[in-house]
Amino acid sequence: MKIKSLKKVVLPICLSLSVASSAMAADAKLSDDEWHFTLSPLFLWGMHINGSSTVGPAELPLQIDFGDVLDNLNAVFTIHFEMQKGDWTLFAEYQYVDLDPSVDTSSGAEVGIDFIDQMGELGVAYRAATFGINDLQLLGGARYTRQDLDVKIGPGVQLLDVSERWLDGFVGMRIFTHISDNWTFIGRGDIGAGGSDFVWNLVGMIDYQFKDWGSAFFGYRWLDYDYESGSGMDHYAYDALQHGPLAGLSIHW
User: Fold this and answer.
1) What is the structure's pLDDT at 63?
2) Helix or strand or coil: residue 148?
């Protein structure tokens, strides 16, 4: 049946869009006492995955390219929101991915897969220093991940039903380098743990503000998970580096 190979592909693919990060940020140059808002309603992270996944006793290597995600994508929704007043910024993000691929096994039977991956992030950032054209923020928050996988063969014979959810706290920093009135470099780095044994996140991107109300961003992101739960046949682990280019649009008001 080669079901192990299905797990190798499907589980990490769903994490690949889980995310993109809090780097879609409000303009850190703002220093008045009014609220300023930034909304990034849809963005894309072109993900590659390198690492391993373990389901039950089997550890499987992961080598996933972004094209594998596009081939099996059924639905995706991403949104990032920030509100800033003075030195303080609150940010929130939600990502939803639904994969619904089918795979033919060596015996000729068709295996249907339904995988839903959701991730929510909530955090706060504080501008701790300004030096030259740079603003430095300290940040902290929590990231919730939920994954639901259902694998069936033929008209309804269930082979696998997995549900994983966990919560991680994180701390880190962001830097805004204001190259000009329109161009800004944004970098973010954070580390966390909780449900995961350890997770780290690194983002570097360029934001171009083409109007007072809008900007476009592009860059690169790395996200590394070390997650493990259960034992025996219920054992599940995900130890992989997810990385790739990201791009999108932001609305400011």
Assistant:
1) 67
2) strand
Dist CA 246 CA 225 (whole Å): 18
**Integer Cα distance of 148 and 217 in angstroms:** 31
**Distance of alpha carbon 230 from alpha carbon 163, whole angstroms:** 12
Mean pLDDT of the residues in the chain = 79
**Could you tell me which of 210, 220, 139, 212 has the C-alpha nearest to residue 186?**
220
b/e map of 30-63 (b: 16 or more CB within 10 Å)? beeeeebebbbeebebbbbbebebbbeeeebebe
> Which domains does the chain possess?
3-252 (2.40.128.90)
What's at 104, amino acid-wise?
D
* Six-digit token string for 33: 């006492």
Length of the chain: 253
